[in-house]
Amino acid sequence: MICAGPDTPSSETIRVGGRWISNTDAQIGLLHVITNKRIETNINSSDLAPVSNNLVNQFFLQLRDVGVKNKIVPYIRQGLVVDEVLRELSEGNYQLLVIGAHFQPGQDLWQGTLLDDVTDQLLNRSSCSVLII
Question: What pLDDT score does 39 carry?
Fold first, then answer.
């Protein structure tokens, strides 16, 4: 399963993870979580559905562009990112979780990888192997 969001590092996660996975015959779950942390806006989750669908379609096409010929099954969930990723992992039959480290410019690469809360939580709580891009 590849997890991707609206932030810039997701494109790198898709590109690198996709190239790696393209050498396998694995089916790919492509997960995007609409986060509940939109309290500061008046946007309701139904307004986000077209945006999320467009984002998932973009990632689908990016996977195809890097040579992924595998079957890709898109999933969109709503909730807290870590909870929804773990829920999808428990409901599916995944052997690998591909996630981004959400590296920020100016941040030490390893420090950013180790301190990222979402990445750290998924690394420590996932029921399968984790590939951090």
Answer: 38
CATH at residue 11: 3.40.50.620
Distance between CA atoms of residues 5 and 8, nearest Å = 8
At position 42, the amino acid (one-letter code) is N
- The string over 119-132, giving b where at least 16 C-beta atoms fall within 10 Å of a residue's C-beta and e elsewhere, is beebbeebeeeeeb
The model's pLDDT over 37-87, given as tens digits with 9 standing for 90+, comes to 543 344 344 444 555 678 889 999 999 999 999 999 999 999 999 999 999
How many domains, in total, are found in the chain? 1
Of residues 114, 58, 116, the one with CA closest to residue 82: 116
User: Is the pLDDT confidence value at 122 over 50?
Assistant: yes
Domain ranges, residue 100 = 2-132
Q: What angle do CA 63, 67, 70 make, to 5 degrees?
A: 70
